[in-house]
Amino acid sequence: MAAKKAVKIQKDDKIQKALEEEHRIRKAFKDKDWAEIKSSDSWVIFKVMSEFVEGFEKLAKIGPCVTIFGSARIKPDNQYYKMAEEIAYQLVQQGYGVITGGGPGIMEAGNKGANRASGKSVGLNIYLPHEQKGNIYIDPDKLITFDYFFVRKVMFVKYSQGFIVMPGGFGTIDELSEALTLIQTKKIGRFPIVLVGKKFWAGMMEWIKKVLVTEKMISAEDLDLFVLVDTPEDAVQAIDDFYTKYLLSPNF
């Protein structure tokens, strides 16, 4: 009886989600009158402005930081979780603060490592349908929760002196691609991008070399925009080597 009830609840939940998705699709094609456009779009503009203002005010004086990206689904017993925590710990020892997306998984590991080393631990969280919450290792005064992904992305790039990219899914790849595009097109100054986990990234690296480079979608020189490592020590060393070589100052 309980099993049948559980199945029915799951079925009803799927139906409800399907109806909500259909409503959103139909709403996108609905013609809006001027009053609707003015009221809804004006509210969005002010909400976006407020998120930028909060981000700038809270992050302007955090000092040199490195952002750690990666999957929210990785558990504490996973090797990549442990590596991310160790990378964050070593980064703090080298004088950097740590920024993450503020959630669980790799993000939690990054904040945990920074917290363990008594360093700055920043979380740029995002409101999601499953209500992602900020992890407990973020400094209370350095947790910001955004509605808009694009505002959050600006904060990652503006206040990071490097990206450590751990294994992850669509969100991680999105952040990686965004950073590579901005540097490639010289919209921002160059900073180190370090991919951790040679085995995990191997397929993507092969595709980039054999397809993107061969088809001339990118230049062979673009492969120099990132480095691939396998250990926490090498990840931190890549950040240090970059700034030793280029003698760059923080983005701000």
Please tell me about this protein's structure:
With 252 residues, the chain is an alpha/beta fold. It has two domains: 1-28; 49-246, Rossmann fold (3-Layer(aba) Sandwich). It is built from eight helices and seven strands. It has helices spanning 2-29, 34-59, 79-93, 106-116, 149-158, 170-184, 198-213, 232-246; strands at 65-69, 97-100, 121-126, 143-146, 163-165, 193-196, 227-229. The protein has a seven-stranded parallel β-sheet with strand order 4-3-2-1-5-6-7, sandwiched between helices. The mean pLDDT is 88.
Give the biggest beta sheet. 7 strands, parallel
Derived from helix and strand composition plus strand pairing, the structural class reads alpha/beta
CATH architecture of the largest domain: 3-Layer(aba) Sandwich
**How far do the termini sit from each other?**
62 Å
- Count structural domains: 2
Which stretches are poorly predicted, pLDDT < 50 over at least 5 residues? none
Q: Quick gist of this model?
A:
The chain has 252 residues and is α/β, with parallel strands linked by helices. It is built from 8 helices and 7 strands; from the N terminus they run ααβαβαββαβαβαβα.
What labels would you give this structure?
252 residues, alpha/beta, Rossmann fold, seven-stranded parallel β-sheet, 8 helices, globular
Per-chain topology:
Layout: H1 2-29, H2 34-59, E1 65-69, H3 79-93, E2 97-100, H4 106-116, E3 121-126, E4 143-146, H5 149-158, E5 163-165, H6 170-184, E6 193-196, H7 198-213, E7 227-229, H8 232-246
Parallel strand pairs: 1-2, 1-5, 2-3, 3-4, 5-6, 6-7
Helix pairs in contact: 3-4, 3-8
